[in-house]
Amino acid sequence: MGYGWGGAVVADTRQQQKSLMASAFATPFYRRHWVTQPEEWSELPILRDSDLKAARRDFPENVFGGRLTVPERNLLYIWPPSGALKPDISIYMGITDDERTHWVDVITRQWTVLGLGAEDVVQVLSWSNDPFVAVLTTAVGGASAYGSPAVDELLGILTVRLELVPSEARRTLATAELLHPAALFADSAHVEAMRQLLGTKTLASLGYRSVILRSVEWVEAKTRKQWEEAWQIPVRRLLEIPYALGYGLDCERNPQGVHFARDHYVIEVTDDNGHLVTEGTNGYFTITPLFLRSHPIIRYQTAITGYLEHEACDCLDDGVLFIPRPEGRQ
């Protein structure tokens, strides 16, 4: 199972790139960052954490660092990307209802690939202001707090939010014994704390079908296999790029790689100078969320190293897969 798209979507993506460039150049940040309006996408300078940090200092009038294209009142939700970058970078993220619809589509596809559906219970371990729960899944009141439906509403799933910290593992287990969840979104420290509390029992005995590890760093396939053996349950990996609203799911057929929905994101691999590298050449994972128009993040170069490979699997029509290198983040 996987995402799917064809040539028509690729052509539409190019149009989205052009319109995104035009709207971004209307902001103070990108007028300074680009100097002149580029004609081609490949001419755009890359965006690094250091650029975002400098923008927060140079454009103090709002917490978006001079990238806001809409009135702040149009944003449904604003949050700091906790744990994504160093604490001294105080830029916030936000999202409009239209942007949320696209983001929900990304996660809905992934949950479908994971085999989650009607009447399943899913535990999502999160932190304060975590958009994965606050924006993408159902609010505590039992319905989406926004105009468009949430991921779990679309799939008929009950989502249970819990605290991510390992000290809350006992509460996670107590909830699991009551609701028998199909899946758990957590980090490895929390799952390991649960395993130790279980003693001779297994996660599968509580009803779990899989564990999905959330991380801003790539987890190697051999580490995933070790956890599967220790926890006695299938493990999948979700790679998160918080400043780009990016969520990539590991490949079911090629465990070395990760898929991002390429009709919602532009995925590139660039060198130290921001130039594209050839296929199979190692470089930095660079991402642009096409749907994020309220405060664009364009050609955001992460510290994750790896390469793109075509026809790496048959999950997608174009078979493109990002293969992180073992060294991960530098």
Overview of this protein structure:
The protein has 330 residues and is of the alpha/beta class. Helices cover 28% and strands 22% of the residues. It has one domain (7-329): ANL, N-terminal domain (Rossmann fold, 3-Layer(aba) Sandwich). The protein has helices spanning 7-24, 28-34, 49-58, 97-113, 131-134, 151-155, 169-179, 188-198, 221-231; strands at 77-79, 93-95, 121-126, 158-163, 183-186, 210-215, 235-241, 246-250, 258-259, 265-270, 283-289, 300-309, 321-329. The strands form three sheets. It has a seven-stranded mixed beta sheet with strand order 4-3-5-6-7-8-9, sandwiched between helices. The protein has a four-stranded antiparallel beta sheet with strand order 10-11-12-13, with no helix packed on it. α9 (221-231) links the parallel β6 and β7.
